[in-house]
Design a protein that fits this description.
This protein has six helices and 43 strands. By secondary structure, the protein is mostly beta strands. The protein has a single domain, classed as TonB-dependent receptor, beta-barrel domain (Maltoporin, Chain A, Beta Barrel). The longest helix has 10 residues. The chain starts with 8 loop residues before the first helix and ends in a 7-residue tail after the last strand.
Length: 713
Amino acid sequence: MADRPRSRLLVYALLPLLAGSPAVQAEEEPGAEGAEPAPAPAEDGQPAPDEPQDFNDLSLEELLGIPVGVATRSTTQSVRESPGILTVITREEIRRSGARDLQDVLRLVPGFQLGADVMDTVLLGVRGLWAAEGKVLILLDGHEMHEPMYTNAQLTNRFSAELIERLEVIRGPGSVVYGGAAELAVVNVITVAGAGLEGAELTLTGVGHDRGAALGQRTLSAAVGHTFQELDGLRLAASLFVGQTNRGDQRYTDVYGSSYSMLGQSRADPFQASLALGWRGLEVRYLFDYYRTSMRSAYDFALPFTLPVSFLTSSLELAYRLELADGLVLTPRLRHMFWRPWNCTDPRSDQFSDSAPLHDDSTEQRALVGVDLAWAPLGWLDLLFGAEYAYDTSHDPIYRFIDLDTWDPEHPDRAELVDDMRYHRVAIYLQGLLETEWINASAGARLEWHDHSGVSFVPRAGLHKAYGPFHFKVLVSQAFRSPSNRNLSFTPEVEPEKTTVYELELGYQLLESLSVVANGFYIDVQRPIIYFFDETGEGYRNSDSSGSYGAEAELRFKWKSAFANLSFSYYSTAGLDNPASYAVPGREHVLLGFSPYKLSFLGGLALWRDLSLNLSGVLLGDQRWGIDRVDEVGGQQLPHYREYPAELVMNVYLLWENAVVPGLFAGLGIYNMLDVRQRTVMPYDSWHNELPGPGLEVLLKLGYRGPGPGATP
């Protein structure tokens, strides 16, 4: 590394902003639910009491008192009071981190790690457990971002960090109010447009790789919003995120030894546009997300060429908030969603149909009607009743679906295949929140019926309260994972898995500028849905059990213009029965893909006025295992398990706000400043080698935040 000229680095960051060619110029190798609107100013011209202040002026107590509603949906509470193990990352903390996308921000969340999946995709692990396929729900202004074929939400450079107003994360079950795609966690992304932006924002981001003069990323994030008081408070907002990204500058090597450079051959190019309208009680939101990628890693072997794979999502939601009486609010909602996930129609993919099913042109649709009734009959009691019906359709003329009318588990080969499947789902849920002077209590339950996978019932209950600087939470929650459409198409008898989670959190504000929070958890997953591939074919089956236990801790410091957030996460599986496909042979305390230890840090200091220096980093401990090659032993191919060393990724970011003129800002940073080899490891035994991340990168951001077009001075 020492022999590389560092004078090129700033040029690499600038090029994506200035060049007219695609973000990656390398050639292929031959053969190779939203928040409330922003408060209006008071009549005397002074800001309303809850109007956002400058981050440097906020105290730690004010940051801890930010109201969040992700855990309840019917009412907002502070992080300390809310009935869930929560992480909330504010907009200013995201800006100071220099994060490029949501994936960068989620690295800082306790208990969250990244895992590699097929076709160059990156998904989440939660508390040591592989959380792909319906175990983490990602919401973007209320839009569900997982596709129903496999119930996954791709991450790399898909969601702009610059457009996030606030990130709310439930590190625990969320099925009672969110259903069968929120088994282990809920990630609620509230954007500036969804939060009622008043004004306009524009950010250009460029990233340069420190290898081969490669352009790593260039993106544009923009948003505009305005409330027309003369039109009875009509609110309009829109946002746009578009860009081109190369996911890495390293070489990928499959388990059989074939390799290629990822430069130019592992793309992640987002196009995301949203519109929001609010008028009186009416809310209309629309999201169009077209995420284009390219890859060569496929499944266990590397392809001889790059294939394009795209993910399209269209989501429209209408909701009307009707106040029937004081403390009684009825909110009916309608939603239509259309997906074209994992789309790969390149004719070259057909040649791998026997060994790697890559050709895909399936579509999914969902029509949902629901209603929420929030009732606060007393000042110390909040109730939420809800019901919803969803009608899903799937069309797949290539791999098709098993016709349930001809399905016999004793004779699966006799089943006929059809191009289309239809699913019906009905759910009712309720929850209550009781607040007293001595203690707060919460309880809820969800009953859901799916016409193919049956009935799921999950309750939850908790005691929680803040007493001055001290708070505690004791939570017992159940959750479930609904089989995805592809689960059912392969194996119709697969059943929903059910999870029980026990959590205890204790927190104390030691000083006016210092607080510490620690929690312990125990996760028991019964009948987990596991993918299998053997001599009988492939599909999904219910295993016996899975789970983990451990602890997480967060320390927060905030004094004037200086702040620091430090978190530690630990998990273990010793003594628990986990599926063989997730296990590491001879190591019962750890699962594939995820280190039992993680330390994350974000902090910053104002150097002069609006100029701040910020540092962030993530340390993954050793004992992270994966499959890196296949050995020939006695005429058989056997996977080789490797332990990866500890990995420390450090980033530094210099942010100048109100640069030259009010509203203009500029940021310059170095990601992975130690140039370590980043490894994202596959968390199950699918014979897929590590997915290498980029080395040292230089980051440049230029942008403006201020009044929108036509605003009066």
